[in-house]
Amino acid sequence: MSNRQKFHPMAIASYWIQALRTWLFLLVLTLINGGSYLVILGIVALALVQAIAKYLTRSYVISPEKIIIYHGFFRKKETDIPYERIQTIKQRQWFFYKPFNIIQILIETAGGKSQEAEGELPAVDINTLQLLESYRHREPLEKEPQTAAEATYHVTDEQIFLFGITDLSILASLTALIAFGTELIPDSWYTNVVTTAEDAYRRGWIFLLGLALLVFVSIMLISLAKNFFQFYNFNVSRSNQTLTIESGLLERKVQKIPVDKIQGIRIRQQVLRKVLKLSSVEIILAGGQEKQGENNTPTKLYVLPIISDSKLYQTLDQLLPEWHMQQPDLIRASTNKIWYFWRWYLLFIPVIIAGFYFHFYWGLAAMLVATYFLFCAWLDYHYQGYAIQTASRLCLQTFESLTKVQTFVERPKIQALTNQTSKWLYPKQIGHTKMTLKTGLGSESIKLKFIGQKHQHKLKQFFNK
């Protein structure tokens, strides 16, 4: 397939969806403010024109040496991607693609600087992926049937249900939505909400309890729907040196990850999942992680979205035997230093006293806020630690957003180590250690706070070996 090819016409649907997402804010704003349906139809029509223009001005070539993607009409752009630079190849299939036997292919490289895939084939025949893989791995196109997977893990509907009802991230999303929504909601809507709240208050605590229960159930349903669409029929398998992750209901996603591209392994356990003895496992890549949200933060690339703690390390050892995963014997590096975690939050005490002086409920609200932050600081203190598992393997445990996080990383994957202290902490032989890891298209830091200097020296020795 060395000739220049056009994408399948269904690419117009993919481009149209992308364009509508771009205009989504304006569409919602128009609806909320009672805008004309002609305006909405105009936006939808403009998005369709954009999609058709993209389809007509884009094409591709797949040769034995590289992939070439052509863009533009007035300003022409040509993207060359040699196979040896490819980090991951992702396959997606919207439900309306399936009858046509076509897929979307995303091609990402470790050296890419963009927040999007370096190469996108929005709608091509499903056999195109086999052709790409044969060129990429220098294998003949006609080959023996693939051997059975060496190890697999499947997420059941019951596990997705547990994942959904224990997903605390939905609360943060709803809080941000409410905060943002108050700027867009018309004054008449806001007045109605306030009036309803005042009526509820007058009707007593039983009505308020029922309202709170309704909100809680709504949050659970939203979380269940979101996770069911994302993790439906989730399956991860290991064949030779490749992990294959498949999931999704309306949009089926398939990602093949070379094992040697894995930077680290991260185990997360939220407060609710700790009670149920459940954990989630994600893998860290130097590239090939999607971006989402306003800050373009990497999505979590789950290899085990939810799994029982009793099966965790056994399953990981089957999928990633090179890592020899085992439960870490953690060193609590901040023992007897709870004061340093609490000291700034104790400044809430005068605020609480002043609140109770002026109004009982103000004081109660301040006390609840202070209690929450003190509890989070205690969890941070209680769970923080590290374990040097092998001559080159380190596990760092921290606590963030009501979640215990264990990060397993090999020493060559650590970009930098920084030890710091202050003139007040140094006499007490206390400091902070920060390690920087390559993640996604950027980097992130993991910090151990208020640890003894002997632990700082020990971690530095490990890093400098």
Describe this structure in words.
- By secondary structure, this protein is α+β, with helices and mostly antiparallel strands.
- Helix content is 40%, strand content 30%.
- The protein has helices at residues 11-22, 24-32, 37-56, 127-136, 157-165, 169-181, 187-203, 205-231, 271-275, 309-319, 338-342, 348-358, 360-383, 453-464; strands at residues 5-6, 59-62, 66-71, 77-82, 86-94, 102-109, 119-125, 151-154, 235-239, 242-247, 251-258, 262-270, 278-285, 291-292, 297-298, 302-308, 385-388, 393-400, 403-410, 414-420, 430-439, 442-452.
- A seven-stranded antiparallel beta sheet has the order 7-6-5-11-10-9-8, with helices on both faces. A six-stranded antiparallel beta sheet has the order 16-13-12-19-18-17. It has a four-stranded antiparallel beta sheet with strand order 1-2-3-4.
- The longest helix is centred in the middle third of the chain and has 27 residues, at 205-231.
- The protein is globular, with a radius of gyration of 26 Å.
- Residues 291-298 have low confidence and may be disordered.
